[in-house]
Design goal:
single chain; 264 residues; alpha/beta; Spore Coat Polysaccharide Biosynthesis Protein SpsA, Chain A; 9-stranded mixed beta sheet; 11 helices; 9 strands; globular
């Protein structure tokens, strides 16, 4: 598998070296494409990763940059993912995800588990995830987020069928991509391994509640006709009891949204 990993960035993250090092450890054979302002390329390359390919952005915004990184013509790739400039891939879990992807050529999108870390790189929990991919449409339609993009690998064919990421989004373009993929009949699979770490820091786009709610409603529209499934929600809750208990033990009786807001 020729894997391309994209990072779209303004080139200002204090965690960039951690991100680069994690990609080198977890996916040493992958091509790591970083899309940033041209003036920031020297600073990004100061991390000195042999596998890093810098690209000067042609348009601002997360999803235009990601599409640019995926579509840049040099190099060969048949699968991709993207990672934020403050998040990390995990070894050996990400390697297990890659191995599972190779064993299942019929799968369009493979996903695993994602831990939460704080600004000091300390684990603070785990994002809930659907262990049963058949439940994904019902969970998305019920406004339950059943997987996290940093824990995914996406095959080239489904990206091309969907025409890439919708650049009209500012925050939830990944959710829109997954919802459109499910509506198209894309095949998802799950690997039970921690494959990435998502960092909660102040000022994240995902904390803008009203804008997130509006974009989410639009993103989930392709699944609006999906039947309600109480069984899917029960399976999801039961499978993630461990992550809920850990959240209570570490942070008290708070929601995931409250945990996000505490880092503001």
């Amino acid at each position: 598998m020729n894997l391309r990993i994209i990072t779209a960035t303004r080139g200002e993250s204090p965690y960039w070296q951690e991100t680069v090092d994690s990609v080198a450890r977890a996916a040493p054979a992958a091509e790591h494409v970083v899309v940033c302002p041209e003036s920031r390329i020297p600073a990004m390359m100061a991390a000195r990763p042999a596998h890093l390919r810098p690209i000067a952005e042609t348009a601002p915004g997360l999803y235009p940059k990601l599409n640019q990184g995926v579509r840049q013509p040099t190099g060969r790739w048949d699968a991709f993912t993207w990672i934020n400039d403050d998040d990390r891939l995990c070894a050996p879990g990400f390697g297990q995800l890659c191995e599972a992807f190779l064993r299942q050529p019929e799968i369009d999108i493979l996903y695993g588990r994602v831990d939460l870390i704080d600004r000091h790189s300390r684990r603070i929990g785990e994002l809930p995830v659907a262990r049963r991919p058949a439940d994904l449409p019902a969970l998305f339609a019920a406004d339950v987020i059943p997987l996290a993009q940093p824990g995914t690998i996406i095959r080239k064919g489904i990206f091309e069928k969907l025409g890439g990421l919708d650049e009209s989004y500012r925050i939830v373009g990944d959710m829109d991509f997954f919802a459109r993929a499910l509506a198209l009949g894309a095949r998802f699979a799950f690997t039970n391994a921690v494959v990435a770490e998502f960092r909660l820091v102040a000022g994240q786009l995902s904390k803008h509640r009203e804008e997130v709610a509006a974009e989410t409603s639009r993103a989930l529209a392709p699944l609006a006709g999906t039947p309600v499934s109480s069984a899917a929600r029960l399976r999801f809750r039961f499978a993630n009891l461990g992550s809920y208990f850990e959240r209570v033990r570490r942070h008290g009786w708070i929601s995931m949204r409250d945990l996000y807001d505490r880092t503001a």
